[in-house]
Each structure stands twice: as C-alpha cells, then as structure tokens.
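User: Design a sequence. Structure:
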C-alpha cells in the first residue's frame, strides 16, 4: 500500500499549489541566483516533508494500537470508507464542520510562528516555514493520515507520510515557479482527478481489509497478520 502514498502525494500536489502555493511563493528566496533559489525552495519543501513524517509517526502509533487489539482489518475497511466519503461529499459541505477546532490554540500558535519566520532569510527559517506549513490543516493530509494509520505500524506510518510528502514536491516546485509568469487554464481540470484517486485508494484499503487473498492488493487474513507481525519486529 506504500505505493499509493507516493501516487496520492503526486496528484495532491495540484491541490497543494492552490493551498500552499501562495505561501511557497512568499518565502524569502534569492531570485537573482537560480541555484541558490532552488536550494532554498528545496529546504522549505524538506520542512514540509519532515512535518508529514512526524505526523505519520503519531498516526502509525495509533494504527499499531489497533493492530495489537486485533482490529487491523476493520481499521483498513473504516479508513477506506472514510476516504471514499471525503471524496464524494462536496468540499463546501465538509468545510461546515471544523475538525480542527479542538486544537485551535495549537494551530493559532503554528500560524504565529509561521508568520515570524517570513521576516528571516536563513535556511533554518525556510525549513521552519515548511515545517509549520506542514502542520496547518489540509484535507489531503487528513486523507493521507488515514492511510498512515491503516499501516498498523509506527515505521510504516511514518514512511507512508514521507512518501506522500515526497510525492508532492516535484510538481509543486515546477508549478509554483511557473505560476509566477503563466496562468494554468488546465489547473481546475486536474483538480477533478483528485477525488477519483482518493476513491481508488479508498477501495484498495477496503479490499485490503477484506483479506481476499489477492496478491499485493488484498492479502489473505493469515498473510495480512503475518506481514503486520513481521513489520513490528
């Protein structure tokens, strides 16, 4: 299932351009030195990936708890269904429910720290801008975290989110730089691909939970248990 993280990250980068793109275009970079500029942007991107990885550790730990309770298959099915629901329900409808409200104070502090880093021009500040940006609420990250939790393992959970973050980098770096001079008329068309991909990944997680003995897609109940056991050692 790790391959789905990289693929989902790549497609989600279209969403990232719209949400994180403005932040990326505001970071203090040296526009007169192309090489230095790419290094600075890469530092920012690595900060984002680090944030995603740390969240993957947390949700991988939660998933490991479900595994120890013998609920790994049920969790995979629930995660898959949730992914499909998120893809089907209109974004405006989901926006009516503020899932981040319980941690609003933490998010407020993250935004404050994010704003302070824009006043600096060091590589450390660029990394922190990416780090704090990665912790801000994002629907695509929520979906990826569901996947990380379904890995039933701390290491695999963190790896899932690392691959998700790496998948967002190539297209985002190119588009963010290109968007400064060009309008992408096809951007909205690509946005339509995201829900379809989420549904496909959700179906994969549901199939995985059913243990239908389909190699690489839906291992049997016994194989799924053995794989999870091996991942824990």
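Assistant: Done.
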């Amino acid at each position: 299932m790790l391959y789905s993280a990289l693929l989902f990250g790549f497609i989600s980068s279209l969403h990232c351009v719209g949400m994180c793109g403005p932040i990326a275009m505001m970071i203090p970079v040296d526009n007169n030195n192309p090489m230095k500029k790419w290094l600075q942007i890469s530092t920012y991107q690595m900060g984002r990936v680090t944030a995603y990885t740390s969240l993957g550790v947390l949700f991988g730990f939660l998933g490991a708890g479900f595994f120890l309770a013998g609920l790994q298959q049920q969790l995979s099915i629930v995660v898959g269904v949730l992914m499909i629901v998120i893809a089907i329900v209109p974004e405006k409808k989901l926006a009516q429910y503020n899932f981040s409200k319980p941690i609003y104070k933490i998010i407020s502090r993250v935004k404050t720290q994010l704003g302070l880093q824009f006043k600096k021009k060091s590589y450390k500040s660029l990394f922190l801008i990416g780090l704090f940006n990665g912790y801000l609420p994002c629907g695509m990250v929520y979906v990826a975290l569901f996947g990380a939790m379904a890995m039933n393992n701390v290491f695999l959970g963190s790896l899932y989110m690392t691959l998700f973050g790496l998948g967002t980098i190539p297209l985002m770096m190119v588009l963010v730089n290109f968007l400064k001079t060009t309008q992408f008329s096809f951007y909205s068309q690509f946005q339509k691909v995201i829900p379809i991909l989420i549904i496909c990944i959700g179906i994969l997680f549901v199939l995985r939970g059913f243990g239908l003995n389909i190699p690489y897609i839906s291992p049997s109940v016994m194989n799924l248990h053995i794989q999870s056991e091996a991942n824990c050692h």
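Residues 2-231 form one domain. The chain has one domain: 2-231.
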